[in-house]
């Protein structure tokens, strides 16, 4: 599993924008920037939609005021699902990056297998990344939601 001090691996994400499908790479997203990255097991799932994403939307201005350039949400979902979820949550403050095949999450060692519930998914976590290097990593134990909350990350900034 990735740890504090490690550099994020180079992968491509999928992002559906007003200009069509984009495939930003890790270096394009993180190089020269301070980024808060949080991951959810799945778009539209209960905790993710009711608490995790809404917390980051509500605190986006305060997080960015601490020197964060971008807040990124990722999941092992396709770009169409991520865009629909972003739109349904009015989440203009957040950048949504789809990891449809799980290549990013496999590379950082933060996947979980949910079998018939959805197959390969991301674990729930949040990290602070400075110029591609992980400076904080908070991974949730199964069935918990504490250390990856927006409030926890804001306090750590």
UniProtKB/TrEMBL annotation:
Pfam families: Redoxin. It is an enzyme of class 1 (oxidoreductase). Residues 2-157 form the Thioredoxin domain. Keywords: Antioxidant, Oxidoreductase, Peroxidase, Redox-active center. InterPro entries: PRX5-like, Redoxin, Thioredoxin-like_sf, Thioredoxin_domain. SUPFAM superfamilies: Thioredoxin-like (SSF52833). One of its GO terms (biological process) is hydrogen peroxide catabolic process. Its EC number is 1.11.1.27. GO terms for cellular component: cytoplasm. It catalyses: a hydroperoxide + 2 glutathione = an alcohol + glutathione disulfide + H2O. This is Glutathione-dependent peroxiredoxin. It comes from Alishewanella agri BL06.
């Amino acid at each position: 599993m990735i740890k504090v001090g490690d550099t994020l691996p180079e992968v491509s994400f999928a992002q559906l924008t007003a200009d069509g499908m984009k495939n930003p790479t890790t270096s394009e997203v993180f190089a020269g920037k301070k980024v808060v990255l949080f991951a959810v097991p799945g778009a539209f799932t209960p905790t993710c939609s009711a608490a995790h994403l809404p917390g980051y939307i509500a605190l986006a201005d305060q997080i960015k005021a601490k020197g964060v350039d971008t807040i990124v949400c990722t999941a092992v979902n396709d770009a169409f699902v991520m865009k629909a979820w972003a739109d349904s949550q009015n989440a203009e403050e957040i950048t949504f990056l789809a990891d449809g095949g799980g290549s990013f999450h496999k590379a950082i060692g933060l996947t979980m297998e949910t079998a018939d519930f959805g197959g390969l998914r991301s674990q729930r976590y949040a990290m602070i990344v400075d110029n591609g290097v992980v400076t904080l990593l908070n991974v949730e134990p199964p069935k918990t939601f504490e250390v990856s909350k927006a409030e926890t990350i804001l306090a750590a900034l």
